[in-house]
Specification:
It is a single chain. The chain is α+β, with helices and mostly antiparallel strands. The protein has 2 domains: about 15-45 and about 135-310, Multidrug efflux transporter AcrB transmembrane fold (Up-down Bundle), CATH 1.20.1640; about 50-130, Alpha-Beta Plaits. The chain is built from 11 helices and 7 strands. The strands form 2 sheets. Strands 2, 3, 4, 5 and 6 form a 5-stranded antiparallel β-sheet that branches. It has a two-stranded parallel ribbon with strand order 1-7. A hairpin with a 5-residue loop joins strand 3 (about 80-85) and strand 4. It is elongated.
Amino acid sequence: MKLLKLVPDHTNIDFMRWRNLALVLSLIATVASIAFTAYRGLNLGIDFIGGQLVRVEFQQPVRIDDLRTRVAQLGVGEASIQALGNDRTYQVRLPKPPGPESASNQVVSKLRAALPKDYPGARVDAGESVSGKVSEELAQDSAMAIGLAMLGIAVYIWFRFEWQFGVGALLTLAHDVAMTLGFFAFTRLQVDLNVVAAFLTIVGYSLNDTVVIYDRIRENLRKYRKMAIIPLLNLSLNETLARTVVTSFTVLIALGVLMLIGPEVIFGLAIAIFLGVVIGTYSSIYISSPVLVWLGVEPDSFLKTDDKDEAQAQTA
């Protein structure tokens, strides 16, 4: 039986031919994502902003606009309401009221008493409460965790390879995180601690793919000292293409199943990692590798002085 190969042997794709176009498109998309995220903000979950979070289930279909109007009439603050997969199950997020903890319980009790009157058979689950101080600490710690992870990875690659590779890895990770943030800002999907875990997973996955490609590039830099840098990068990318495609494809299959039939509580986690894998696969090819060209890396850049003289003599 012949084995299935997603990438045929001796594949020779000229990836670097499109490096400048990819740079322009990636730069525009990254700047747009950062600007849109700063302008519109993220739909932060209760983990980060504090407040009350309740789940409401109805016996009959309910329009979200009608539900939002009914909740606003209760005088419990500006509510954020999100459908959970259908028009009978909704998540209602309320701002944390001033005063003692009992005030939060009164808000949930008020909601629990009013909704069944307007919608017979409606069930309001117990409220989940997070204080403003705790949520602020969680937001700061989450941002610090992502930032330190990216910085630590860049430093590791700097020592593992050379500083040019460290810069390339850091730019790649920044691109992946910025694009994913822009997606969440545009779709208004809720950002909670599960999504923060997804961002850290994206950073790790993107790094893994980048290191594999960088390791092959460094190996070929030692092996082909007379080859120009552009053909050398194309060779390295084609040699690792099968591994990149197979790894990404199998991960995307698992994440696709989680998105379609998995529990709603991990939907944000699954879609964030799914998007991160797609973007990370692209950036490993069209961000991390072309950066080496823009930073002036040549086949003899990392040779010792004696080795450079020997290579120049052989070329002459």
